[in-house]
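Project outcomes to date are best conveyed with an example. Our students and postdoctoral researchers have been running inverse folding experiments weekly, and each run begins with a structure described purely in tokens. The record below, which covers 95 residues, was selected by the lab manager from last quarter's runs and is presented without edits.
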């Protein structure tokens, strides 16, 4: 699918707002809602949606990579020792 459609900032914001409202179910209803919200045709909307999904996947992959690196470096536990207390006050070893 290819589209040379140029999206203005306003159209982009309408698209994102409509997508947040209708969700990512990729049904005929979703496409119609996005077409009505943006004034673009269905091909343009579908192509734009695919581009957005690629960007979302890149962001998610980067976040997962960052979280894994933080776990390896121990950065998530800087203010605590390796022991936590249970409800009755006993130390629990987390290793």
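After processing, the design step wrote out the following sequence:
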């Amino acid at each position: 699918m290819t589209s040379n459609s140029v999206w203005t900032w306003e159209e982009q914001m309408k698209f994102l707002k409509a997508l947040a409202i209708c969700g990512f179910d990729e049904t005929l209803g979703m496409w119609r809602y996005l077409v009505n919200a943006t004034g673009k045709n269905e091909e343009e909307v579908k192509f734009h949606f695919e581009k957005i999904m690629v960007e979302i996947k890149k962001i998610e992959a980067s976040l997962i990579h960052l979280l894994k690196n933080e776990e390896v470096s121990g950065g998530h536990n800087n203010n605590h020792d390796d022991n936590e207390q249970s409800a009755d006050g006993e130390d629990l070893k987390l290793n």
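The longest strand covers residues 83-85. DSSP finds three helices and two strands in the chain. The training component of this project remains on track.
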